[in-house]
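Hello,

Our lab assistant flagged a job as stuck in the queue for most of the afternoon. It eventually completed. Since we weren't sure the result was trustworthy after the delay, we are filing this so someone can double-check. Below is the sequence as submitted and the structure that was eventually returned. Let us know if re-running is recommended.
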Amino acid sequence: MARRGIAATCAAAALVAALAADASPSLAQGGPADLTVADIVERPGAQLPLDLVFAGEDSAAVRLGDCFAPGRPVILNLGYFACPMLCGLVLNGMVDGLRDVAWTPGAEFGIVTLSIDAREGPRLAGLKKGNALASYGRPEAAAGWRFLTGGEAEIRAVTEAVGFGFAWDEKTQQWMHPAALVVCTPDGRVSRYLYGVEFDAQTLRLALAEASGGRIGGTTEKLLLLCYDYDSSVGRYGPSARRLMTVAGYVTVLAIAGWLALLWRRERRRKST
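-- returned structure --
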């Protein structure tokens, strides 16, 4: 579960204050939200709209495609910065897991945290990024982790591309949305959905290695991906009985072939003496 403390409480207060200054009084929508749309419709292989332009945490225009690079997968983190609960849990769960992954944003992979609330702007994004980087403990990750805000049309284009549904609930004055990360390939296609608010290091590492097409990671990741499958029911990678049997079969065949070759060599030596 996400770590909390005095610093987190102060950070949350700062974010709420910033939202009050940045956001418009209320959304034009009224009435109860259709919460059935606040779900994930998985679209593996779907292409993100990389030509769309958003505002970065530094107020500069950021083309979504510029957050991607050859050989470098990207974790897409969707939510909103003033969320009182779920978004923070997902973000903190991701950070907790990534602390135990040797790879760093900007080097082996990237992260895009995109607000689904068109009322939020760069000031709030900058505060959120500062808090996230402080919690992560790797300031060098700043260049590879963008916090973006944008217009409603641009936000909807991205969320619809990846099947991330959300809806405004007038009663609670909150956005209703699922808890998930979307792992994307270096060319901006959906590779894997990771659900929940806790993401262990192995799951994140294997999802990134899988999305990169084997371009990041070493022998350990390649062997695990050969023998493991992602189990969405538990939200992590686990041993695949079918793949383990296949690998065991290959190992057995190789062992028998090696044993027969050894016998053949011994027989040849015996006959030559």
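-- support follow-up --
The delay was a queue issue, not a problem with the job. The result is valid. Confidence is low (pLDDT under 50) at residues 1-30, 240-244. The chain has one domain: 6-198.
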